[in-house]
Amino acid sequence: MEKYIYVDGKKYRRGFTTGTCAAAASKAAAYILFTGKKIKKINVDTPKYKAISIEIENIDIEYFENKNIKSVNVGVIKDGGDDIDATHGMEICSKIEIIPISNLPKIRSKKQSNYLEITSSNGIGTVKAQGLSVECNRPAINPVPLKMIADSVQEIIEDLQIDIEKKLDKEKTFLITISAPRGEEIAKNTFNSNLGIEGGISIIGTTGIVEPMSDEGWKKALSLELYTKVKKGLDKIILVPGNIGYDAMVSKLKYSPDSIVKMSNFIGYMLMECKRLGFKKIYLAGHIGKLIKLSAGIMDSHNRIADARHEIMIANLALMGASLEILKEIEKCKTTDAMLKVIDKNNLHGVYEIIAQKAAERAWNYMRLDRKKQNIEIEIILFSMESDVLARSNYK
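Given the sequence above, the corresponding structure tokens read:
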């Protein structure tokens, strides 16, 4: 992996996610447990790049009376690169030990292998609301980091040719405990509480790498990406906020990745760039939690700038005749996905089409298009977290 990227002639340093930190710490802890040798660095694979070198910050080894290693706790410092966020510079720790299955903590992550359990302690939040990618009452460790942790430990087991049956009897298992000493304090500067995550930070990251850019640099890079599409002869473009829309359009609806651009939160900016560059059809496709904002005329979907998801959903459901009891239930939901469950339960699916249609109208009006003179089609496609199509707007 190249350590730096260049945007508009400026140099930006890449970083790595809390998920990569947890996987690296877990891999290092497993290596030390099995070999007894301390290390200063460890290579860890991410979904985007292989063999990322991560420095080990702290190592704490606990021994039995017979001098055999009882547990190993390893700390890694989160480095957000030049895209510094609240978790930049904090320590993410992983402790590995062999324990009786009967002693497993009640709150732990979904099982990743037959001989490995993953839990959390100080500074890692617990999911307390429906609608996230992690079930209620489990550690706030997202699915991709969970897999990275398990795969990293498995890699050490395979490389060292560890005989699991000799290390474990039927009544014991490996336990990984992820922690963050300053996590509870740092979580106050994140959106975790709004999402129903209590007690600390989340271990997140879908690629394992933090790609840094300033907003202006990011926008210029996106404009250049659109321009290259035009030069390739494309007259239709798909704008997606992020990975959910991208993956759904490619794997679910079979669109070509070459026609997709990740626009992040810059909806209005990208619409105007598409108009300037002369695209004949614009798809806006993504999770309803992002694109519902467009239906109310919000052209920058970042939560810090505008987050009116509840108000938009409640207003549209009210116009459909939903009861006050349902509207209050929607208001209590921590996430958009939690709202979807209430909507599905009460057979109010028509709201999805209304939102999609309004989003298309807002996009059209924002671009100041003349229906008689400018032949540009706009289509909105709304997805759930599971990549199911909730609604598609009519062509404009």
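The two ends are 43 Å apart (CA to CA). Try to locate this feature in the token string yourself.
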